[in-house]
Amino acid sequence: MFESSTPRHLRENIRNIDKPKLDLIESSLLHNYFIRYSEGYLETERGRNDLENHLFRRLDGDRNTVIPWLDAARPLQNASILEIGCGTGCSTVALSEQGAKVLAIDVDENSLAVARARCEIYGLDASFFQANATEVNKLFSGRHFDYIIFYAALEHMLIKERLSAMRATWNMLSPGGLWCVIETPNRLWYYDAHTSLLPFHMWLPDELAFEYSRFSPRDEYREVYREYTDESKLHFLRRGRGVSFHEFELSMKPIGELKIKSSLKTEDRKKGIWGLMKWRLSNEHRYTSLLKRIAPELHEGFLQSFLYLIIEKD
């Protein structure tokens, strides 16, 4: 059941599948994506939630929140989209079923295997490539895109890679093109809800954050990082360390000159009057208000717990 706030013209394009087809997606997830986890993970509450997220919750969230937001900025029908960080393909389905022409990349071939299977099961045509975001300007040189979307991807890149990818993709866009970041944790936020589930963890220097990770309440995380070697450091950094306005200013142009077409604020993602009322009384709302007072020159999209921004190239 999709919420009535989703525009009718978008709801009409949603493709539903039956239980046998959903079972096929689950099988692909089990044989490709979840093989990286320890035995018994999917029997835990977190593991079961993770599986359900990849099966349908992420797709529902995209359809109800992200897709209407993007479509309001520029219609997705016939839009050419470079999606960086497609993962297991929930977002690719949500974009493609609206008539967008999606070229999706990811660094993980196992995730791409699920994404390809998912789109085939839904009867959707999208193109998939295994690639790092730093390579897209060479791989797709001369291609036109209405949107370039970093979907939950920037936080998993090293700073040098991130700046290179942001700079290169920004330069790929023609005037009027839209550069988007979706679901990326904000380094300025006081709580790391993405990776460590610890307060202030994204503020710590990398080595100190690595050492302190043993206090995380998150299974499959706190027990992993013990010896600080080059290999373990790289693995740790790619789990996600957050992004802030600083990278945008370094890779694009001064923040005050960026044309922020739209941002999806935290309160916009709360559903119904009770959700909004709860938000108004929350620590999150108080903290956002504090950041606004500290840095009034920053667009409010840079002050949210997660970055959801659409920036227009001028």
Question: Which helices and strands appear, and what pairs or packs with what?
Answer:
Elements: H1 8-11, H2 19-33, H3 45-73, E1 80-84, H4 90-96, E2 101-106, H5 109-122, E3 127-130, H6 136-139, E4 147-151, H7 159-172, E5 178-185, H8 206-212, H9 230-238, H10 245-251, E6 259-263, H11 272-280, H12 283-294, E7 306-312
Parallel strand pairs: 1-2, 1-4, 2-3, 4-5
Antiparallel strand pairs: 5-7, 6-7
Helix pairs in contact: 2-5, 3-4, 7-10
Describe the structure.
The chain is of the alpha/beta class and 314 residues long. It is 42% helix and 13% strand. The chain is built from 12 helices and 7 strands. Strands 3-2-1-4-5-7-6 form a 7-stranded mixed β-sheet, with helices on one face.
